[in-house]
Amino acid sequence: IYHGEPGQCPVRRVRAQGRDALCIALATRDPLLCRAVRSQGGRRRCSAILGSAAGCRGMRTAAEVASCRADRRRWRAVLRPRRPRPGRVRRRPRYRISITAKGQTLRGASGALARGVVVPRAAARGRWLLGDLRPSGGRSRVEARLLLMADLPPPSKLPASLKVASGARGARFCGLWRGRPVPPERITGEVKISRYGARRGARVTGSFAVTLALGEQKIQVTGSFDTFVRDVVPGSWASRTCADRLAEVVPPRPTARAPGEAAAVGSGIEEHPCFFVAHWQGLRQVGYRVYGLRPRGACALLGLRDGDVVLSVGGRPMTRWADVTALYGLLASSARLSLRVERRGKRITLKRAAR
Description:
Elements: H1 21-28, H2 40-50, H3 62-76, E1 94-101, E2 104-109, E3 117-120, E4 128-132, H4 141-145, E5 146-152, E6 161-163, E7 172-177, E8 180-181, E9 187-193, E10 203-214, E11 217-233, H5 242-246, E12 275-281, E13 284-291, H6 298-302, E14 309-313, E15 316-317, H7 321-332, E16 337-343, E17 346-352
Parallel strand pairs: 3-11
Antiparallel strand pairs: 1-2, 1-11, 4-5, 5-7, 6-9, 7-8, 9-10, 10-11, 12-13, 13-14, 14-15, 14-16, 16-17
Helix pairs in contact: 2-3
């Protein structure tokens, strides 16, 4: 149906993540875009339809192999895969990262950019999200506690090298350390990125080196990546910043402590009385959902329950990660507080008098 019109493919729940990858690959007849499909089985099925029949052999069960072969026969009867371009190199996305903290350096590979990146068709009203520059996901404590993201100007205005800054022509990094946002002024460094065309399948290469100053501790993160453009979307879709994206990340729940044991000073997320994750209705973010309440914590004492959606704080809509950090500050203070909350389809107001 969408042959030659990948822009008509269904949109993901979060528009900044682009369109359905399998639909784009089939609509463009490009087997190289099959690597953007989320599931491993979906990638093999897509490769079998647009490429070699050997893709079906890697399915987990005999039933899946038979289903994959049937899909291949059905699709091959109505489409002819696009011929590969002369000299086109079949390459795999690559992302290397190293983290240095307390004199120890950890190196590894990450799959954060394995499914490509989404870029705007024209200059975005804001910044272009490069992606989630996650560590390798190993068992080390530093890798488990760090999450890094990056915002860059649109491709049309992208220079070869950018200093980490808050200016319009600078790059911006956002990070979570132990579940808490790292202030932007504590992140310094530089990112280099190649020029590329805003088209699906275009190659994107670059490197970065940033330093996070966390009190007396400094964490140095360096990385290099070689990925591709998986989708080109309208500029308004990519206007969200990395701070907004951090709000969608679900932090780990606090570890259990023995009865009577107090939380250590600077223990990060264990000091939070509850956690928040972005809540969406269709393509619109309407607030933040509450979970992981601590008994007798500030959230519980205010009347919040697991599953509540905080719509506004003091009459101000709660739609950005900055609103979450501001709410944490209000919960820890003795100021007057008023929250508009949706609970099981009903909207109620929770108030706390000044203490």
